[in-house]
Amino acid sequence: MNLSKFFHHLFNPHCPDCKDEHEESIICESCEILKKELAIAHQENKRLIDSMLEKPEIEINKEPVQITRPHTLPWKVKQQILEKEDRVKARIMKDAPKPIATEDLEKELDSAERERQA
User: Fold this and answer.
1) Residue-level pLDDT at 44
2) pTM (two decimals)
3) Nearest-angstrom CA–CA distance, 107 and 101
4) What pLDDT sits at residue 62?
5) Cα separation of 2 and 10, whole Å?
6) Which of 90, 19, 68 minimizes the C-alpha distance to 8?
7) Which of 37, 62, 82, 99 stands the most exposed, by the fewest C-beta atoms within 10 Å?
8) What residue segments make up the domains of the chain, in order of their start?
9) Which residues have C-beta within 8 Å of that of residue 18, sequence separation ≥ 6?
10) pLDDT score at 55
């Protein structure tokens, strides 16, 4: 059989069948490994894309949603509130007992001591 291939190749060097057979025998291992790795990468990418595109299950809440409006006060109203608070603070400070100076306390102590001695 080897001899027949040799003569066939000798007389028909550009035979398409032989050319295809020769190209198939030249396939390298690294190319095959790369093809397998590329196929694995494509499968993983497809799986990831499918999981991303998958519709998540949405729970429907039947409770009514309460709409809250922002609570903002106009400046005039806020100014009046602040002024009222300041007036109350001023009244409290005015009515608060004033601290007694140390000199007054010393005078009282001296006078009390004199009364005891007398």
Assistant:
1) 96
2) 0.31
3) 10
4) 75
5) 12
6) 19
7) 62
8) 2-53, 75-117
9) 8, 9, 12
10) 78
> Token pair for residue 100?
């007694």
Query: Which parts of the chain sit beneath pLDDT 70?
Result: 1, 9, 22, 24-25, 70
Residue 12: what pLDDT? 73
b/e sequence 74-106, b meaning 16+ C-beta within 10 Å: eeeeeeeeeeeeeeeeeeeeeeeeeeeeeeeee
Cα angle value 42/44/49 (rounded, 5°): 95
- In the block, which residue shows the tokens 């109203």? 77
First to last CA, the chain: 150
Question: Which 8-state DSSP code applies to residue 100?
Answer: P
Specify the pLDDT at position 1: 55
